[in-house]
């Protein structure tokens, strides 16, 4: 039953509460958006395959840190074991946009001296009439931190796929160029099983995947 | 798992006509379940869908219809779940079930709903179900499920999980079994669960945790950490050419994770848990492994050891992260005052006291290896766990064990199995340790004076002595700490020692009295009258080494040393450093000056480096916590940048880096020395933000030389401005409508960072780019101005170009001379560049002092709008002083006294004129000639007149080229600037700082007469500038001279 994937990337989704992290993740992993009348359904762990090129699949593991922020050791470990992340803010909530900087600072403190590849996501773009953050300023902020910017809506399924696949592609490029390397003891990137292709890093991964339980 | 991409509901059955969120639908689902009690290949999908739907209905019911839950309970529907689970139904069903349960618990918001779900014991049954944990996905969802449950824990819900009567707490005990799972995400989840449990303030539950699980869990945890540490140490020791760095940084990060976790537990502040944890940490990890390794480096033996650098590094991390007083106090006590008897005598005492008990070996870490003690505990813990009725995953545990054994390389773990119940003993043991420590302190307190004098013993001695019969008087750990500061060879260990001392002094948990005992003051220590001389001397020695040409001290070490020394000798009332120490420090500073002199070059790049280094040093002060997160310092100091190690954390490579290093050493020691002598820094940075003209400043331009131009920016914007060139800056101003003769600065940029190029097909235009100084040596310079300037004719264009180009060179030159002055260098003759004479140069060298003094005065005066003239008006003598300094640069400034209006300028002119003899022929007389006398004063704004200074005087500049240098518009000068070739040679020789500072009236005889007061621009034309008394006089003088 093991799906065939080239790499596994571990991603985190961060941002202020109520910006719609869980909805975005759920939309992506299940293609479904919980309607307003519906209970918000969230869970903190998802995975999905993404095909970035024909035949090249990447397994994404997505972690939502919701509810665990109070313990420094926990958030630290989350951040440290992720290769990439979506930094969400709500375009109808200026405060959440202003906090983007704090989120980046916080991750920086935790992952020193590593780095996480972030994409800045302006969420709830279906609510354009209530917009409080212009696309231009968001793009400017993203550029200042060397991030890409994308606007999404989980409700209308706008750019949800794109946000994840773009990020995946960027990370994939970095991995291919060797700027991100697979390391034992770090779970941000793992190499997977590729039929008919010998993968140099596979050994490392196998030993890593050994389960002691 | 991947089948889940289809919709949640409606997948299995087509009759979705009725509302899926209803009690009816749940009843239907119930019906489906009853029909399919056995899982087969055929109904698997149906069952999964059914479970999903049920979950969704439950979540809906939670918020909308309580009858849903009633029905769910009534029909005992959880049993079906369990039933499905217990059939070996395969991975697919397991994952689905776990995930839907997860979602269910995550989304239930009403307490009552939650109670319903938890009330029968089914959840616990699921928790203890023996899943196939070798499947990564199942493992992930399982632990996620436990974590979700743990997030729901509170004083009420805890009773559903913790059974007081059967002493059963499956959620917790099952979770902690995975504490050392190879997947870090699983470990994180386990940690979250434990923290969520400890956080619940339920005494019986916490007692259970302490009595039944704390010892095994914490001892295992500590062992787990310890084995990571040993792995880390191996990684350091086997490293060749930094190849292990990737792995090493992971292990370091792992250790940090551990410490943060421990700290998170400790700050929950559950007292009796903390006791057990502290005991284990101290007595099974920190003391026996970290601290013990401080002294026993060369001794073989079976006790596990790590290398000195690793031990120092890790201890620093401990003190940086953990601030729990009982723990850090005991640890600090041993390091600062303890000796090896902490280990050895403890053994004896234990044997005596507890000879009756067979379990003695359990807590004699000193005689046993860490591994063995841990092993015992581990087995004991396991046994207890195995007794748990619910425990099913036996095979799992064995594997876990194997994992542990693999990482440890303990030759004889056979002994380790003799564990016995010892949960109760934890606290007693703790007391014993503390007693031992207390005894030590008493003794060492007596001997403090002796010891501080005595620690000249080198490492060998202390190591040899540490064998068995250690005197009670010595403090080997402290000795080691002092000795490792020796940087004669390298600063490999010194850096860690400094970090350790720093971390201890910053630690909020450590009783300041403890630190006081070695006279290491805590961060905000009160008054003190003495300090630790030995430490101070060691620190100063490090500084001395750092200032040597071949010194092997890294910048990080030096910076930290400076930090510590300041902390050591600065008290509230100021510095208490002894003269002899200060003298030594001054010696080191002197050395650093000598060191930097070797690199001082006239090249442009030196100035840029000098200022860059200052910027990056002040903008990024050292963060010790970050420093201690970087694994790269664990490997021997290297010089090659190819390792990617930060510059401050390695040795310099190549001349450029050696220069940069010398510059930084100079800065640090200079700042330290000033600090300790309680003197303010008056020279650095070379350009102070507050001295510069800024946008929107309003300047008195009455005496300024301005060139009108049109500025076309890159984005096509076009504005009319007047270009003014100051000593350090060029600015673009527009007239102030409110005040006659004043202008508002619209842009100001440093001349030194400017590039001026002509425009090919337009002789009236210049391209000007000004870069913002790069914030780091690697970042690209960012242009703050990029524009084309168009002047009214090509002559003005040329003049502007000249003025800017020369201004640039002059600005740089001036700064270089100030650096030279800082280095006590005789200023080299630099005739070729600007045509300053030697004399002027030597005069200039002293001037920086004046520069700042005056600028201060200027800025103190609220009435002064950056206009020096304000102060001139108040202090008549000043005008003259300014005049002297009226330097240089603006090459083609107008010599017209009328345009410059004030007497001071008149003086300047004459002064400048005096320097005819100096080789400033660079001022291209030819151009000057061509710029001929077409000089109508330009009139702009309502009443204000400013004279465009290309100046009629140009005609005379042929014979008197210095004229142009004279007229730098003084009103644009924020403060007076030193300088340059204004006086004739003979007089300059006699010039001293005093003479400049004290505003010497210019001796008319030493000044060559300035004879070219231009007639073309009449004084009367020159707007309504009121001239001061002094100016009248001086002007008069000028005329007289003529």
UniProtKB/TrEMBL annotation, chain A:
<dbReference type="GO" id="GO:0010506">
    <property type="term" value="P:regulation of autophagy"/>
</dbReference>
<dbReference type="GO" id="GO:0031489">
    <property type="term" value="F:myosin V binding"/>
</dbReference>
<keyword id="KW-0968">Cytoplasmic vesicle</keyword>
<dbReference type="Pfam" id="PF00071">
    <property type="entry name" value="Ras"/>
</dbReference>
<keyword id="KW-0072">Autophagy</keyword>
<keyword id="KW-0472">Membrane</keyword>
<dbReference type="GO" id="GO:0005794">
    <property type="term" value="C:Golgi apparatus"/>
</dbReference>
<dbReference type="GO" id="GO:0003924">
    <property type="term" value="F:GTPase activity"/>
</dbReference>
<dbReference type="InterPro" id="IPR041818">
    <property type="entry name" value="Rab39"/>
</dbReference>
<protein>
    <submittedName>
        <fullName>RAB39B, member RAS onco family</fullName>
    </submittedName>
</protein>
<keyword id="KW-0449">Lipoprotein</keyword>
<keyword id="KW-0342">GTP-binding</keyword>
<keyword id="KW-0636">Prenylation</keyword>
<dbReference type="InterPro" id="IPR027417">
    <property type="entry name" value="P-loop_NTPase"/>
</dbReference>
<dbReference type="GO" id="GO:0043005">
    <property type="term" value="C:neuron projection"/>
</dbReference>
<dbReference type="GO" id="GO:0120281">
    <property type="term" value="C:autolysosome membrane"/>
</dbReference>
<keyword id="KW-0488">Methylation</keyword>
<dbReference type="GO" id="GO:0005525">
    <property type="term" value="F:GTP binding"/>
</dbReference>
<dbReference type="InterPro" id="IPR005225">
    <property type="entry name" value="Small_GTP-bd"/>
</dbReference>
<dbReference type="GO" id="GO:0030659">
    <property type="term" value="C:cytoplasmic vesicle membrane"/>
</dbReference>
<dbReference type="GO" id="GO:0006914">
    <property type="term" value="P:autophagy"/>
</dbReference>
<dbReference type="InterPro" id="IPR050209">
    <property type="entry name" value="Rab_GTPases_membrane_traffic"/>
</dbReference>
TrEMBL record, chain B:
<feature type="domain" description="FPL">
    <location>
        <begin position="51"/>
        <end position="198"/>
    </location>
</feature>
<feature type="domain" description="CLEC16A/TT9 C-terminal">
    <location>
        <begin position="243"/>
        <end position="1010"/>
    </location>
</feature>
<dbReference type="GO" id="GO:0009267">
    <property type="term" value="P:cellular response to starvation"/>
</dbReference>
<dbReference type="InterPro" id="IPR045820">
    <property type="entry name" value="CLEC16A/TT9_C"/>
</dbReference>
<feature type="compositionally biased region" description="Low complexity">
    <location>
        <begin position="910"/>
        <end position="927"/>
    </location>
</feature>
<feature type="region of interest" description="Disordered">
    <location>
        <begin position="886"/>
        <end position="936"/>
    </location>
</feature>
<feature type="compositionally biased region" description="Polar residues">
    <location>
        <begin position="1031"/>
        <end position="1042"/>
    </location>
</feature>
<dbReference type="GO" id="GO:0016197">
    <property type="term" value="P:endosomal transport"/>
</dbReference>
<dbReference type="Pfam" id="PF19439">
    <property type="entry name" value="CLEC16A_C"/>
</dbReference>
<dbReference type="GO" id="GO:0005794">
    <property type="term" value="C:Golgi apparatus"/>
</dbReference>
<feature type="region of interest" description="Disordered">
    <location>
        <begin position="949"/>
        <end position="972"/>
    </location>
</feature>
<dbReference type="Pfam" id="PF09758">
    <property type="entry name" value="FPL"/>
</dbReference>
<dbReference type="GO" id="GO:0005829">
    <property type="term" value="C:cytosol"/>
</dbReference>
<protein>
    <submittedName>
        <fullName>C-type lectin domain containing 16A</fullName>
    </submittedName>
</protein>
<comment type="similarity">
    <text>Belongs to the CLEC16A/gop-1 family.</text>
</comment>
<feature type="region of interest" description="Disordered">
    <location>
        <begin position="379"/>
        <end position="429"/>
    </location>
</feature>
<keyword id="KW-0072">Autophagy</keyword>
<dbReference type="InterPro" id="IPR039272">
    <property type="entry name" value="CLEC16A/TT9"/>
</dbReference>
<dbReference type="GO" id="GO:1901097">
    <property type="term" value="P:negative regulation of autophagosome maturation"/>
</dbReference>
<dbReference type="GO" id="GO:1904263">
    <property type="term" value="P:positive regulation of TORC1 signaling"/>
</dbReference>
<feature type="region of interest" description="Disordered">
    <location>
        <begin position="1019"/>
        <end position="1042"/>
    </location>
</feature>
<feature type="compositionally biased region" description="Basic residues">
    <location>
        <begin position="379"/>
        <end position="390"/>
    </location>
</feature>
């Amino acid at each position: 039953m093991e799906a065939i994937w080239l790499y596994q990337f571990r991603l985190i989704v961060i941002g202020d509460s109520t910006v719609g992290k869980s909805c975005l993740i759920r939309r992506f992993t299940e293609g479904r958006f919980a309607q307003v009348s519906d209970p918000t359904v969230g869970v903190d762990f998802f995975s999905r395959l993404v095909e970035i090129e024909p035949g090249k699949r990447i397994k994404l593991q997505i972690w939502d840190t919701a509810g665990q922020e109070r313990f420094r050791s926990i958030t630290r470990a989350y951040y440290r074991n992720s290769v990439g992340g979506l930094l969400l803010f709500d375009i109808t909530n200026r405060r959440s946009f202003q906090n983007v900087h704090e989120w980046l600072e916080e991750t920086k403190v935790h992952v020193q001296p590593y780095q996480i590849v972030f994409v800045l996501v302006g969420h709830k773009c279906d609510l354009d009439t209530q917009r409080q953050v212009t696309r231009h300023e968001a793009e400017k902020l993203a550029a200042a931190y060397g991030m890409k910017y994308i606007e999404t809506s989980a409700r209308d399924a706008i750019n949800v796929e794109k946000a994840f696949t773009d990020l995946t592609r960027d990370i994939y490029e970095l991995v291919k160029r060797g700027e991100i390397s697979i390391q034992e003891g770090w779970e941000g990137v793992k190499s997977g099983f590729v039929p008919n292709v010998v993968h140099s890093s596979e050994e490392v991964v196998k030993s890593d995947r050994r389960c002691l339980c | 798992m991947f089948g889940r991409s289809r919709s949640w509901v409606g997948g299995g059955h087509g009759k979705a006509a009725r509302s899926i969120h209803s009690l009816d639908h749940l009843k239907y689902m119930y019906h489906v379940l009853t029909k399919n009690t056995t899982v087969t290949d055929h109904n698997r999908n149906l069952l999964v869908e059914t479970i999903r739907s049920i979950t969704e209905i439950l979540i809906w019911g939670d918020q909308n219809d309580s009858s849903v839950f009633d029905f769910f309970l009534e029909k005992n529907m959880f049993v079906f779940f369990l039933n499905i689970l217990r059939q070996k139904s395969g991975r697919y069903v397991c994952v689905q079930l776990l995930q839907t349960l997860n979602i269910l618990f995550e989304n239930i918001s009403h307490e009552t709903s939650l109670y319903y779900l938890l009330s029968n014991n089914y959840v616990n049954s699921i928790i203890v179900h023996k899943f196939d944990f070798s499947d990564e996905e199942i493992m992930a969802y399982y632990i996620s499920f436990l974590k979700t449950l743990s997030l729901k824990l509170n004083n009420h819900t805890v009773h559903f999980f913790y059974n007081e009567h059967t002493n059963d707490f499956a959620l917790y005990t099952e979770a902690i079994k995975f504490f050392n799972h190879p997947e870090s995400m699983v470990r994180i989840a386990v940690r979250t669960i434990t923290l969520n449990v400890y956080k619940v303030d339920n005494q019986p539950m916490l007692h259970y945790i302490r009595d039944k699980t704390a010892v095994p869990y914490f001892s295992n945890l500590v062992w787990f950490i310890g084995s990571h540490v040993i792995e880390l140490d191996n990684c350091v020791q086997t490293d060749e050419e930094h190849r292990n760095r990737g792995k090493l940084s992971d292990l370091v990060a792992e250790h940090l994770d551990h410490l943060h976790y421990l700290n998170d537990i400790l700050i929950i502040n559950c007292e009796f848990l903390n006791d057990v944890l502290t005991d284990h940490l101290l007595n099974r990890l920190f003391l026996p492994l970290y601290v013990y390794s401080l002294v026993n480096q060369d001794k073989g033996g079976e006790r596990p050891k790590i290398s000195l650098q690793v031990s120092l590094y890790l201890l620093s991390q401990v003190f940086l992260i953990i601030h729990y007083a009982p723990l850090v106090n005991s640890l600090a006590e041993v390091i600062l005052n303890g000796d090896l008897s902490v280990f050895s005598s403890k053994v004896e005492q234990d044997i005596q006291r507890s000879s009756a008990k067979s379990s003695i070996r359990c807590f004699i870490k000193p005689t046993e290896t860490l591994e063995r003690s841990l092993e015992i505990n581990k087995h004991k813990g396991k046994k207890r766990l195995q007794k748990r009725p619910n425990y099913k995953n036996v095979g799992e545990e064995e594997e876990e064990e194997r994992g542990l054994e693999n990482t440890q390389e303990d030759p004889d773990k056979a002994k380790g199995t003799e564990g016995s119940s010892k949960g109760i003993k934890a606290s007693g043991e703790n007391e014993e340790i503390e007693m031992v420590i207390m005894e030590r302190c008493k003794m060492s307190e007596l001997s403090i004076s002796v010891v501080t004098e005595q620690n000249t013993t080198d490492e060998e001695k202390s190591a040899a002595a540490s064998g068995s019969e250690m005197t009670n008087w010595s403090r080997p750990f402290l000795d080691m700490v002092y000795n490792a500061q020796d940087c004669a060879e390298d600063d490999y260990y010194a850096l860690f020692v400094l970090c350790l001392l720093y971390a201890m002094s910053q630690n909020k948990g450590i009783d300041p009295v403890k630190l006081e005992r070695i006279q290491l003051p805590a961060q905000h220590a009160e008054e003190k009258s003495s300090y630790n001389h030995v430490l101070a001397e060691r620190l100063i020695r490090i500084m001395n080494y750092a200032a040597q040409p071949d010194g092997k001290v890294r910048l990080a070490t030096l910076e930290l040393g400076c930090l510590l020394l300041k902390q050591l000798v600065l008290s509230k009332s100021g510095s208490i450093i002894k003269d002899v120490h200060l003298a030594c420090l001054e010696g080191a500073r002197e050395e650093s000056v000598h060191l930097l002199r070797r690199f001082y070059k006239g090249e442009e790049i030196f100035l840029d480096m000098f200022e860059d280094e200052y910027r990056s040093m002040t903008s990024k002060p050292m963060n010790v916590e970050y420093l201690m997160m970087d694994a790269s310092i664990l490997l021997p100091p290297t010089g090659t940048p190819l390792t990617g190690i930060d510059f401050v954390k390695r040795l310099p490579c190549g001349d450029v880096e050696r220069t940069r290093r010398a510059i930084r050493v100079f800065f640090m020691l200079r700042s330290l020395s000033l600090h300790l002598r309680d003197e303010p820094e008056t020279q650095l940075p070379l350009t102070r933000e507050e001295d510069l003209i800024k946008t929107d400043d309003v300047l008195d331009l009455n005496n300024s030389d301005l060139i009108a131009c049109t500025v076309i920016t890159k984005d096509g914007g076009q504005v009319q401005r007047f270009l003014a060139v100051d000593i350090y800056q060029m600015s673009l101003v527009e007239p102030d409508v409110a005040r006659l003769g004043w202008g508002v600065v619209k842009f100001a940029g440093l001349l030194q960072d400017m590039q001026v190029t002509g425009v090919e097909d337009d002789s009236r235009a210049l391209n000007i780019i000004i870069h913002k100084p790069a914030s780091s040596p690697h970042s690209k310079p960012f242009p703050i101005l990029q524009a084309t300037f168009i002047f009214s004719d090509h002559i003005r264009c040329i003049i502007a170009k000249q003025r800017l180009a020369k201004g640039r060179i002059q600005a740089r030159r001036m700064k270089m001379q100030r650096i030279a002055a800082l280095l006590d260098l005789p200023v080299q003759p630099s005739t070729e560049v600007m045509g300053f004479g030697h004399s002027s140069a030597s005069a200039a060298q002293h001037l920086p002092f004046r520069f700042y003094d005056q600028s201060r005065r200027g800025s103190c005066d609220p009435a002064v709008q950056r206009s020096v003239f304000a102060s001139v008006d108040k202090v008549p003598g000043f005008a003259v002083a300014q005049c002297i300094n009226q330097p240089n640069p603006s090459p083609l400034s107008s010599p017209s006294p009328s345009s410059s209006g004030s007497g001071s300028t008149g003086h300047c002119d004459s002064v400048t004129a005096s320097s005819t003899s100096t080789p400033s022929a660079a001022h291209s007389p030819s151009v000057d000639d061509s710029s001929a006398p077409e000089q109508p004063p330009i009139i702009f704004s309502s009443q204000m007149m400013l004279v465009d200074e290309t100046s009629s005087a140009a005609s005379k500049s042929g014979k008197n080229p210095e004229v142009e240098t004279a007229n730098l518009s003084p009103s644009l000068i924020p403060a007076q600037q030193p300088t340059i070739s204004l006086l004739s040679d003979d007089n300059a020789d006699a010039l001293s700082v005093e003479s400049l500072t004290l505003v010497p009236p210019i001796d008319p005889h030493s000044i060559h007469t300035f004879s070219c007061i231009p007639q073309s621009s009449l004084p009367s034309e020159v707007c309504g500038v009121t001239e001061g008394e002094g100016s009248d006089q001086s002007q008069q003088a000028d005329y007289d001279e003529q």
